Amino acid sequence: MLESFLDFISQFFQQPALFLGLIAFIGLLLMRADIEKIISGTLKTAIGLLILLGGTTLMSNALAPLGQLATQALGIPEFHVELGTQSVITQFGVEIGLVMLFGFLINLLLARFTPMKYIYLTGHLIFWNAVIFLTSFRFLLGLEGAALVIATSLFVGLYQTVQPWLTHRYDLYVNENSDFVLGHNSSIPVILTSFAAKRMRKRRSMEELSFPKALGWLREPMLLIAVTFVVIYAIVGFLNISEVSAMSEGINPGIFILLQALNFAAGFAVLMMGVRMVIGELIPAFKGISDKVVPGALPALDCPLFFPFGQVSMAYGGLIGMLSMVLVSMCFAGFRYPYFIFAPTMSAWFHGAVAGVYGNKYAGIPGVIFGGAIVGVLMGVGQALMWPLLGFAIGDFFTWAGDTDYVILPLIIALIGKVID
Question: C-alpha angle 51/286/308, rounded to 5°?
Fold first, then answer.
């Protein structure tokens, strides 16, 4: 029964639309809203997040071939993993479920009884926080059983409380005090970008970037993204024309490249529609929780909710994040580094995008450039340090979701192990 319950908890957290729908339902219930408002608010929150995730999936699918083509062009060696992320999840399913549950409860308690009043609500990352940090404690410190669950739960609970607390001073300036903060594993580049950009001389905002009259349409982020990725795909595809022909499955390579770029732009448009729905429904509903359960609390939410506050800087920040990651990969490949160093294109874009929004808010164009560049450096160097430690267990995870916090924070756990030894 316990295993079935924990499996249910694990699967529920992996469905962020259901999780946030439940949060909206509880909030509206505590506010004693009309039944019509409770039903509509709950459904709109869940549907809005499904729309957001649908856009993310469309973007991810459109970028996947680009990552494969870039890897081929760089001549990066194949990677070998002994266990694999799915094997780790299967082997430690009960422990992961317990960590998710206890970590969330610790976050609630800390938010209730300390000044760090932020509740981490990025549901799918609650799952991945448990997976990555449990793997770290198991294979870096050698913990097992109850000790593994307790140590990981404390770490996850602290991370999900402290991370929004550390970024909130920047968040509420960037999102114009919109009553939510960042709950995402891009927090390290966000902190570094904001800290550095605040000390730069403020220059022209990326949002005010001017184009010749004939190119004025490029100020619209969706169109800017579409054109940018057509060019990037064309360059990378030209270097790997045979690979493009193979993955296009009978479609003309030129048409295939054009469709991938347009699909990415379409995915962005869908994502932004979902973002507007979530902000419009969840934030007012959360007031019931902040008033009745955790007074003064703010929800910590996924990074795309910050995109509306800098749509041009987001587009350039994401692009710079990807390009800087490619340059870092080329450096490691040039020095014949024995491990596979190439962050997933999607993570590099998202982390660069959100760092670009923060950098632009504080320093304008230089801040955007710095934010995107620091993402590539952190992802590349973080992977280089992580592969010898955890590559045998979750090396495949680094290739499709090597998020910055996930390739930096486990190093702290490894250092803890060195100190204990």
Answer: 45
Which DSSP state fits 316?
H
Output DSSP code: residue 82. Answer: S
Token output for 311: 């749509």
Q: In Å, what is the CA distance from 192 to each residue of 1, 211, 267, 401? A: 45, 30, 28, 20
pLDDT range class, residue 238, cuts 50, 70, 90: confident
> Structurally, how many domains does the chain consist of?
1
Range of lowest pLDDT (42-51, 75-84, 310-319, 373-382): 75-84
Pairing of strands 298-301, 181-182: parallel
Q: Which residue's structure tokens are 């982020």?
A: 221
**Rounded CA gap, 230 and 157, in Å?**
42
Query: Residue 70 has which token pair?
Result: 């870039």
Cα gap 326→41, rounded to integer Å: 42
Query: Strand, coil or helix: what is 120?
Result: strand
| Other CB atoms within 10 A of residue 135 CB | 24
Lowest mean pLDDT among 73-82, 116-125, 176-185, 289-298: 73-82
Which has the closest alpha carbon to 173: 375, 309, 282?
Answer: 309
% of the chain exceeding 90 in pLDDT: 49
Name residue 321's amino acid.
Answer: G
pLDDT score of 65 more than 70:
yes
Q: Which tokens is 229 given?
A: 């990725």
Closest to 138 (Cα-Cα) out of 122, 123, 152: 152
pLDDT at 307 > cutoff 80: yes
Residue 75's pLDDT is: 67
The whole-angstrom distance between residue 95's C-alpha and the CA centroid of its chain comes to: 23
* Alpha helix positions (H), 293-364: 311-334, 345-363
- Residue range of the domain that includes 258: 2-420
Quickly count: other Cβ atoms within 10 Å of residue 287's Cβ: 15
Residues forming beta bridges with residue 299, ordered by sequence position: 119
